[in-house]
Design brief:
Layout: E1 18-23, E2 29-34, E3 37-41, E4 46-51, H1 56-64, E5 66-72, H2 77-85, E6 100-102, E7 108-110, E8 114-127, E9 132-143, H3 152-159, E10 170-173, E11 179-181, E12 193-195
Antiparallel strand pairs: 1-2, 1-5, 3-4, 4-9, 5-8, 6-7, 8-9, 10-11, 10-12
């Protein structure tokens, strides 16, 4: 394959989809699915999550300065999807989980089908535009399972429903499945496309 030029975008894979537990100042718990999370420092151990300011959990993290990362596997794929599309403003999302415990910082974490949990206190937040990056120091972590973590790539290859066969003519992205209809692509249209 020859050299390719790509429009700037988010292409670092694999990344885990994590479920982040929080609780408001009245101790009402919530859990949110976060697509961007990672390790940022070894000593002290620090992690980051990136959250949209419009999300209910965002205001909770801003006020309380703490969260728990639940690192999930395939068995939690449906719950992970559900917690990413339903707002904790309207629904008690923890009501769907039977196996939960409290971490050392008092927040709930999922014990079944979770590979590990990490309790963290926010040390810094950075406004990046569409998202705010919360950088947090770990205060506790525990491995709960050795089942493979459901990274974004794993989700795309094994969990995400496959696109339906279509009679449409055009171009399909090999990464996300998006279909652009038409024989010719606009000059500035850059995806990993195959002609269909």
């Amino acid at each position: 394959m020859g050299k390719q030029s790509w429009k700037a975008g988010n292409m670092l894979n694999p990344v885990p989809a994590v479920m982040v537990s929080v609780a408001d100042q009245n101790h009402r718990p919530n859990i949110i699915t976060v697509a961007w999370a990672g390790t940022v420092c070894t000593n002290p151990p620090m992690v980051s999550i990136s959250v949209r300011p419009s999300r209910y959990s965002y205001e909770i993290i801003e006020k309380t300065g703490e969260f728990v990362i639940n690192l999930t596997n395939e068995k939690l794929a449906k719950a992970c999807d559900y917690c990413g599309v339903v707002s904790g403003r309207d629904v008690d999302k923890f009501a769907t989980f039977n196996d939960i415990k409290r971490s050392p910082n008092g927040l709930l974490y999922i014990t079944k089908d979770t590979n590990s949990y990490m309790s963290a206190f926010v040390k810094q937040e950075i406004d990046l535009g569409t998202h705010t990056l919360f950088i947090a120091q770990l205060v506790a972590a525990e491995t709960l399972s050795d089942i493979p973590t459901a990274t974004y790539t794993y989700y795309q290859q094994n969990i995400k429903p496959k696109p339906e066969k279509t009679e449409k003519r055009g171009w399909r992205c090999k990464i996300c499945g998006f279909i652009y209809e038409g024989d010719d692509l606009p000059a500035d249209y850059i995806l990993s496309l195959i002609h269909i």
